[in-house]
Amino acid sequence: MGSGKDGKRTTPKLDAKIAPGIHVTPIGFESFGVRSMCTFVETPDVRVLIDAGVALGPRFGKLPHPREYQARNLCRAKIRDCAEKADVIIVSHYHNDHHTPNYTETVWLGSSAEIAESIYRDKVVLAKDVRNAINFSQRRRGWMFQRFVKKLGSEWEVADGRIFEYGATKLKFSRPVPHGEEKSGLGWIIMTTISRGEERILHASDVQGPMSKKTLRMILKERAKLVIVGGPPLYLEGVKVKRSAIDKGIENASRIAAVVPATVFEHHVLRTENWKEQTRLVYDLAKKAGHEVVTAAEYSGVKPQLLESMRQRLYREDPPSEEFLRWTQLLREKQRREPPPV
């Protein structure tokens, strides 16, 4: 599957070929220019929004380029639109690119209490447990978020290891798995399998490949037709992540691609411009098996825009306006309250 030079889809949508009763729409991903793995899933029984968050991140000693803020604003609008349609919202863990917190922050998140309320009010929220298998920072963040959602009058359910049924559709949640390596200091996440009859898709956000063999076995055991998985953080090699861990993530992702008919390979891995060369094994094994590996943008039939990895080049080739540059010089507390002029 791919897209032509004009950005139009050149083959039918993967979910139409692989799981026609489960319609998958990528909402926010690195290939759309933002940090996110937000996905909207519709079946005849239920509409589900997974990981309704978006963020930008620090990189190269520069604040995000205006094009990144524009991509974030677009993603925020799409999340709010899909949340209005959704019956269920899933929270895999409490990093801010995977849920929308209820406070104002304009530099990285573009969040506010009003935006969070518009997303989570009158929903069933199926979320990672805030008490068990969770590190300190996410426990604190998750507890505050849970309190906010309950005050809205929304239904809050701990999802870890549970199954929820909506007509013929099942939402199955894994027990907590590591955010990357085993015993990762970044905590744990829950994976989501959505099935209807023999059709099955799986969403695994920050497993980073996965790096964990146990997580790999859990993914393969689900026998999904489509897996949406976060790849390893190539850009952190030698800084926060050992090369051996990254190699594990690439190897395990390639095993998924060799077994699963279609894989959306995304998130941390796309924060490096030459990511595809470094993960060639994933594509080679998929091709050998006659399977598909795509980014979320390619899945959607558009050209990937890896804006974070391009940040230095964007500042050179598309210089920001003087107004934007003045905003970058504001005191951080004022920046957090005043949106960037983009």
Q: What does this protein structure show overall?
A:
The protein has 342 residues and is of the alpha/beta class. It contains 12 helices and 15 strands. The strands form 3 sheets. The protein has a 7-stranded mixed beta sheet with strand order 7-8-11-12-13-14-15. It has a 6-stranded mixed beta sheet with strand order 1-2-3-4-5-6. A hairpin with a 4-residue loop joins strand 2 (37-42) and strand 3 (47-50). It is globular and about 55 Å long. It starts with 13 loop residues before the first helix and ends in a 5-residue tail after the last helix.
Concise overview:
By secondary structure, this protein is α/β, with parallel strands linked by helices. 33% of the residues lie in helices and 19% in strands. The longest helix is centred in the first third of the chain and has 20 residues, at 66-85.
Largest sheet: 7 strands, mixed
Oligomer state equals single chain
* Poorly predicted ranges: 1-12
Shape, please? globular
Q: What does the average pLDDT come to?
A: 94
Order of helices and strands: HEEEHEHEHEEEEEEEHEHEHHEHHHH
By secondary-structure content and strand pairing, the structural class works out as alpha/beta
Strand percent estimate: 15-25%
What proportion of the residues is helical, as a percent range? 25-40%
Number of helices: 12
Distance separating the two termini? 34 Å
Number of beta strands: 15
Order of strands, main sheet, comes to 7-8-11-12-13-14-15
